[in-house]
Specification:
By secondary structure, this protein is an alpha+beta fold. It has a single domain, classed as Jelly Rolls, CATH 2.60.120.10. The chain contains four helices and twelve strands, in the order H-H-H-H-E-E-E-E-E-E-E-E-E-E-E-E. The strands form two sheets. Strands 1, 2, 3, 4, 6, 9 and 11 form a seven-stranded mixed β-sheet that branches. A five-stranded antiparallel β-sheet has the order 8-7-10-5-12, with no helix packed on it. Helix 1 packs antiparallel against helix 2. The longest helix is centred in the first third of the chain and has 15 residues. 37% of the residues are buried. Fe (ii) ion binds next to loops.
């Protein structure tokens, strides 16, 4: 897989921005977070060195995760396999192979290809029949589900969340996701304390 030029990401970033802009118009808490993310992304220089593909075992689920004909799946399909996918949590004794089935590709952030000290933007991919256990971070987190209906838990509330949905996790609220038969692919953003890593609770 060849390295991506920053301009190769422009169509997907444009589609993500358009979803954020539509959600912003609803004016609720998620809409306000979408507006903040759009504001902060406007200050990010989306250029620089080629982005080197990392490869990752989770990519065996990518074709299924990008099978739909939505605008976001269509924009991600040609490029997502070449993203810098990684899994950086400490190993868990109760799920020693979890890092084979969960990965993140951060595109914007403090150490991402497009640098920002105020906002992160990336993708999360989880394989089928997996629990992404409860974790917590001080950043405010928003997700936009690209594909896969999973069970999302934040605080005491669990619900099934279909593709096209936005989810907001307030700062330091523990949350978890459980996939069913489909992989879950979602865009995430962080604002606030973006330099403090997520940890399992
Ligand atoms: Fe999170």
């Amino acid at each position: 897989m060849a390295a991506l030029e920053p301009r190769d990401l422009a169509p997907a970033l444009s589609v993500i921005r358009s979803h954020l802009a539509r959600r912003q118009a609803e004016g609720d808490a998620i809409g306000r977070e979408a507006a903040l993310v759009l504001d902060l992304l406007a200050d990010v220089t989306m250029s620089g060195d080629p982005i080197e593909p990392s490869g990752h075992p989770v990519l065996r689920h990518l074709t299924a995760a990008l099978a739909s004909s939505t605008d976001i799946a269509t924009a991600l399909r040609p490029i997502a396999a070449a993203f810098p996918w990684h899994y950086s949590y400490a190993p868990r004794a109760d799920a020693p192979d979890l890092g084979q089935d969960i990965a993140f590709a951060e595109l914007v952030g403090p150490v991402a290809p497009f640098r920002s000290a105020t906002v992160c933007l990336g993708l999360l991919l989880i394989g089928p029949h997996r629990l992404y256990p409860h974790h917590v971070h001080p950043a405010v987190e928003m997700y936009f589900v690209v594909s896969g209906t999973a069970s999302w838990t934040a605080g005491q509330v669990s619900r099934r969340v279909p593709p096209g949905s936005f989810i907001l996790h307030p700062a330091s609220m523990p949350h978890a996701m459980r996939t069913d038969a489909e992989p879950l692919l979602a865009v995430y953003t962080w604002t606030g304390e973006v330099s403090v890593a997520s940890t399992y609770t």
